[in-house]
């Protein structure tokens, strides 16, 4: 019996020690078959070939695209997808999605000056064709794939530092065509440049995608200048977007570079984290109206309405008496 107690004590000690032990990380670079990729700038962790396993997409030297495809036992196979440019450190933004529905994700990237380019992955997943989007010589700070018009085909959003943002709609074959009517970005009385970061998310939880843009404009020092005030384009459910950041108190005027939504305080709604260049980062917690306050307001309103109705009834009764 004594041995049993001793065994139980040691077991419980090991379990409790294990539960409270500090976690650590172990270098597993050995899993990457190409260990020389550097200066990536842009990176994506996505299921590139839709097999249920996450893969890694990186731009070596900011221009040469490799996919580390996860195979069995967490081993990766490196596939050279293509080269965006001969210029070192070319890409400023990158986004990944299956534009043409061929079962492999395609990789779009943009830079400071040249056209936005896309590596369209072939149907075997072994190589890609480089495609340039006409008339897209922007100052790309960020780009995002999402289905803005909800037609089942992924579209492209591009943040332009030097001009308004751009939207390209997928025509249903994987070809992107610029649209000036999907969203009106002319909202601040300026040239609406200074577009740095973008988030497409259903921040208000009404079932449709909304767009938040983090804005920063070099040389513009006035925080009230529209080129540096973050904007939120709210979707009405029919893909009509209206800029309404001020109403939600997320019209940040600092030089914002990035923004991200997440449930930071674990209360079930999406809060906002912005990182600013000229000011400390900010967490903007989402607050919902107090339900008790709403109920009290309704009760008070109903009471006031009943008083009004009673007063009206008395006046009418007195009028009747006078007439009689
Ligand atoms: Ca995969
Ligand atoms: Ca594809
Ligand atoms: Ca679409
Ligand atoms: Ca929404």
What would you say this structure looks like, in words?
With 324 residues, the protein is an alpha+beta fold. Helices cover 16% and strands 32% of the residues. Strand 2 (55-60) and strand 3 (64-70) form a beta hairpin. The longest helix is centred in the last third of the chain and has 33 residues, at 291-323. The chain is globular. The protein starts with a helix and ends with a helix. The structure holds calcium ion (4 copies). One calcium ion binds next to loops. One calcium ion binds at residues 147-149, 151, 153, 155, 170.
Calculate Rg over CA atoms: 28 Å
Question: What small molecules does the structure contain?
Answer: calcium ion
Derived from helix and strand composition plus strand pairing, the structural class reads: alpha+beta
DSSP E strands, number: 19
- Shape descriptor reads globular
The main β sheet shows up as: 4 strands, antiparallel
Runs with pLDDT <50, length 5+? none
As a percent range, the share of helical residues equals: 10-25%
What is the percentage of strand-forming residues? 25-35%
N-to-C CA distance: 104 Å
| H/E element sequence | HEEEEEEEEEEEEEEEEEEEH
What is the averaged pLDDT score? 90
Helical stretch tally:
2
Order of adjacent strands in the largest pleated sheet: 1-2-3-4
